[in-house]
Amino acid sequence: MDATESRENAVPCGKNAIPMALKYIREHCDRDITLTEVAKAAWVSPTYFSRLFVHTTGIHFSEYLRRCRLERAKELLTSYSLSIKEIALASGFHSAAYFIKLFSAEYGMTPGEYRRSGGITD
53 and 60 in contact (C-beta within 8 Å)? Predict the structure, then answer.
């Protein structure tokens, strides 16, 4: 690999883009947001943002967004007496069934079980 190739494949640090993006995602994960929207909020192109995000966080944008939504749901499950469907929608998921499937896969229990446990997972 020559110096030109190395420069083309390198992902610069993008000093403020990722912190800005993470803040934006946390504040807006309860609604439909796209990689393009978050890249725009971070003042970078979507292609650059996608590469920089993975390089910096070690995970893809969609995975981070999913985790953020699940964390929001965990907070709602232990703080409010909303139905599972209401929590799914308030966390940015389009259906309760999909939310339950993702939650169960991530935490090894259903949202209802998590709520009954008082928010304690193994």
Answer: yes
